[in-house]
Amino acid sequence: MGIVWTNPQELDLTFRMAQEEYDRASITFLQSVGERAVKLARINGNYTDQTANLRNSIGYIIVQANRVVYESFVGDNAPRHDPQGKANAAQARAFGLNYAKEVGATLRGNKTFLVLVAGMEYARHVEAKGYDVIQGSEDWVKANTQKLMDEFSRYLKYKGL
């Protein structure tokens, strides 16, 4: 099998288009992983969230080539003591997003990263007491890395990449 190549600009364009499609597929796939991980964290969190801030601060961003290309912080749980009040939800989401962006700013290279966080500053203290805030989701991702990579490979084949 051989390739006949006569136009370098055409070849460069073909490679750029393939890279752009791969980048789009990476974002789409990491969105599905992020949504699953956030759902696990919110459902499996075995702590009492009096203010709902901790669960509302859980979310993720996707960083690609040193810039945020997607963000998802949609917590809208109401505080236990005020079932009608959701004013703190927006603030908790903002804490989560800001923290995710801080972490994302430390990631370098022409790569795509999923950054999953619990944005409240006390999240690690809750986890240190033996409660699962986000660690269970991180463990799930780590335990399923090979399976997720295989799933991504199948996804790329399905997309024709």
Describe the structure.
- With 161 residues, the protein is of the alpha+beta class.
- The chain has one domain.
- It is 56% helix and 12% strand.
- The protein is built from six helices and three strands, in the order ααββαβααα.
- A three-stranded antiparallel beta sheet has the order 2-1-3, sandwiched between helices.
- A hairpin with a 2-residue loop joins strand 1 and strand 2.
- Helix 1 crosses helix 5 and helix 1 packs across helix 6.
- The longest helix is centred in the N-terminal third of the chain and has 37 residues.
- The model has no long low-confidence stretch (mean pLDDT 86).
Give the helix tally: 6
Q: Strands across the major sheet, in which order? A: 2-1-3
SS class: alpha+beta
Low-confidence residue ranges: none
Question: What is the molecular shape?
Answer: elongated
Tally of domains: 1
Distance between the ends = 20 Å
Q: Work out the number of β strands.
A: 3
Q: Averaged pLDDT, please? A: 86
The percent range for helix content is 55-70%
Q: What sequence of helices (H) and strands (E) makes up the elements?
A: HHEEHEHHH
The radius of gyration over CA amounts to 19 Å
The biggest sheet amounts to: 3 strands, antiparallel
β content, as a range? 5-15%
